[in-house]
Amino acid sequence: MYHRLLACAPRTPLFVESLPANEASYRQNCVSPVEAIEFSEAARQRQSENTLKRLEQDVRNRQAKELGFDSCDDAEKAAEIFNLLKKQGKSPDVLLEENRARERRMERLIIDLSDTEQKGYEIRARSIRATGSTINPRTALRARYTTDDNKVQCQMCSKGMPFKKRNSDEDYFEAVEALGKGHFFKEHEAQYLALCPECAAEYKEYVKKDPKARETFHDALKNSDSPQIHLESHGRTIRIWFEDKHWQDLKTVLYYYENVYDPDGAD
Ligand SMILES: [Zn+2]
User: Which is more confidently placed, 113 or 135?
Assistant: First the structure.
């Protein structure tokens, strides 16, 4: 048995000869001395190749980190995206500038919000919101949702408004605050939706008056990457979509409430 083990070991080929004759068939299954040496050489070579690959990978990762990436895999993906954009005729410089502009817009909005007072309510016969008139969401909404043919598009049904204002050529629409004081602590235009009269009524009834739908919508606004949200409320599916800048601003407002806002007024 000892001899058999040795015969199979690559580094002790000479012991093969000492096997008993009746074990010839077993010997056929073992490695010959030449094969054993070749096997050992191949293993050493594989080990060297693996070490070399690891070293090369370390160097590439280090170089990628110097360029601001987490790993060379990330750097390769970035290069692929860069080339893809160029192939599609999109300028990476323009996209970078758009992104920087978006970041500057976010910073400005957070500074504005920090300077804005909390929503104020006066106690009269019932609680009356006193700060609502400090902003004008209609102007921003009209600018964002007016199409090329001068129609204001509803953020729920996507249709143009059904009629114009009585004394002007402008479309009538309702500016509905998406959530109440439990979620929006300050006044801001981005918190409003542009809705046609029918959708405004549906939104108020099925979302604003329903605590569960309000929470679902709030979570979706915070967590969704898509500017289109679907809600289920009492058997109805409510779809709300956002124009790009409106969406970015609203996400920034929610980011501000969650990460910067101090309810005691010291943000
Ligand atoms: Zn509508």
Answer: 113
